[in-house]
Amino acid sequence: MSMIGYARVSSIGQSLEVQREKLITAGVDPEHHLFEEKKSGLDSERPQLKEALRFVRKGDVFVVCRIDRLARSTADLYRIVEDLQKKGVSFTCLDQPEIDTQSKYGRLMFGILASIAEFETDLRKERQMDGIAAAKGNGVKFGRKVQLTPDVMAAIHKMRNDGVLIREIMMEMKLSKATIYRALAAGSLPRGDGAAGKHGFLEPQMG
Q1: 162 three-class SS
Q2: Mean of the per-residue pLDDT values for the chain?
Q3: Burial zone of 68 (CB within 10 Å; 0-12 exposed, 13-18 middle, 19+ buried)
Q4: Contact at 8 Å (CB) between 28 and 35?
Q5: CB distance 67 to 6 below 8 Å
Q6: 81: closest CA among 42, 109, 43?
Q7: 3-state DSSP assignment of residue 37
């Protein structure tokens, strides 16, 4: 069994020394089993953390000083520890001894963390759906934007020439009023296909 230590600080100007000393005192071999880096906790690209998680083997103990040195959120922490457990690796936190999967109480704590992580995920999804609903209520359209192709413009002109109201064209074509008027102003049809202006362009009718 080996103790694999991970230390992190957020910026170049901060020192890893305090975490390093604690991890070495706990039994981490600084030459072969200590992984450290200077990266923001919000940065998902933490190469030394990824290397440490690849390095651990069944029976090892993964050690950090504080959980905020390891994870970006409760869900992130639970995901990392779950991956370690699948490999048969224990996890412990020196400054927060209650976070220790080697003890019954520690495993209970992670069961609670799993519930919190699930709650955070559900809450995030709910907020996202609420945001989408609010945006739709304000007229924001989602999905693939309809392009003003020649066929689409011709259809808009045809409907308008047949007396279809702008709001009905908007509903049928799933386009905004501004886009409909832009199509009417920019497009043209051959003479004889509808009422034309003096240059042969269909003139948009207000309505």
Answers
A1: coil
A2: 79
A3: middle
A4: no
A5: no
A6: 109
A7: strand
pLDDT digits (tens, 9 = 90+) for 92-118: 999 888 788 888 777 777 777 767 666
β-partners of residue 37 are 8
Residue 175 corresponds to which amino acid? L
DSSP-based three-state secondary structure for 103: coil
Q: Count the helix, strand and coil residues of the chain and give each as a percent rounded to the nearest 5.
A: 45, 10, 45
What lies within 8 Å, CB to CB, of 178 at 6+ separation is none
Catalytic residue among 2, 10, 73, 188: 10
Q: State pTM to two decimals.
A: 0.54
| Range in 7-16, 142-151, 153-162 with the lowest mean pLDDT | 142-151
Give, as one character, the DSSP assignment of residue 67. G
Q: What angle do CA 112, 118, 119 make, to 5 degrees?
A: 90
As a whole number of angstroms, the distance between CA 154 and CA 161 comes to: 10
Helices (H), 93-165: 104-137, 150-161
Single out the residue of 185, 186, 159 nearest to residue 170, CA to CA: 159
Which residue is it, tokens 């069994």? 1
- Asked if residue 6 lies in contact with residue 66, where contact means CB atoms within 8 angstroms, the answer is no
- 171 band by pLDDT with thresholds 50, 70 and 90: confident
Annotation marks residue 103 as catalytic: no
